[in-house]
Specification:
single chain, 206 residues, alpha+beta, five-stranded mixed β-barrel, 3 helices
């Protein structure tokens, strides 16, 4: 009962933000921690499903998902599909990473986990030396450019990638004099490094 009261007492109010997958994951983590009777075990993989970002919990046969920053739950306990608010009702939206990325570039720092959203401005040939990497350059709203180096031996390649496409990313920043490089945009098979990803056209590449 507390679950439903919390959802319905809050009034949806949000302005669209760029970091859709980042904020969806933050919301899902919050739901797992706050309502384990519905959303457990924790740490379920986020998937793209019919235009939603979602997590499925087979133990309770419940889905939680986001679409255009709206939140939905699905399961018999909810009598099917139920819209329950927007992401910002429950968690503070993560700002874009532009300020942190500018700071890292100006200070020459590397090996820092970052996230953000940018526009594809250049498509480069794959790097085939050692582990294969798909490479392209994005521009942030701040004007800073980043080389995305995406390991396609460990994660799917983005085949339908074009200039001016929007890319959301989570990975590790390495400094260079052109703005920096983001890599580790994939899961770590050893389970040691933070798992990264790319999000493009409602598909997660990890």
């Amino acid at each position: 009962m507390k679950f439903f009261l919390l959802f319905w007492l809050l009034t949806p109010s949000i302005s669209l933000a760029e970091n859709f997958l980042t904020n969806s994951n933050k919301l899902f983590d919050f739901a797992e921690k706050s309502y384990p009777q519905f959303f457990s075990p924790s740490g379920v993989k986020t998937i793209a499903l019919n235009g939603y970002l979602a997590r499925y919990y087979p133990g309770t046969d419940i889905y939680i998902g986001t679409k255009d920053f709206d939140i939905y739950v699905y399961g018999n306990v909810f009598n099917g599909l139920l819209k329950v608010g927007v992401i910002s009702d429950f968690v503070a939206l993560e700002p874009d990473g532009n300020e942190l990325l500018a700071k890292l570039f100006n200070e020459g720092q590397s090996n820092v986990q970052v996230h953000g959203t940018g526009t594809v401005i250049s498509l480069l040939a794959d790097d085939l030396n050692g582990d294969r990497h798909q490479r392209f350059i994005i521009e942030l709203k701040s004007g800073q450019t980043l080389l995305i180096s995406h390991n396609i031996d460990l994660a799917p390649r983005i085949d339908e990638l074009s200039l001016n496409d929007q890319i959301e990313f989570l990975g590790e920043y390495e400094w260079n004099d052109k703005g920096g490089v983001v890599h580790w945009t994939h899961r770590d098979p050893a389970g040691i490094h933070v798992d990264g990803w790319l999000f493009h056209n409602k598909v997660i590449y990890q």
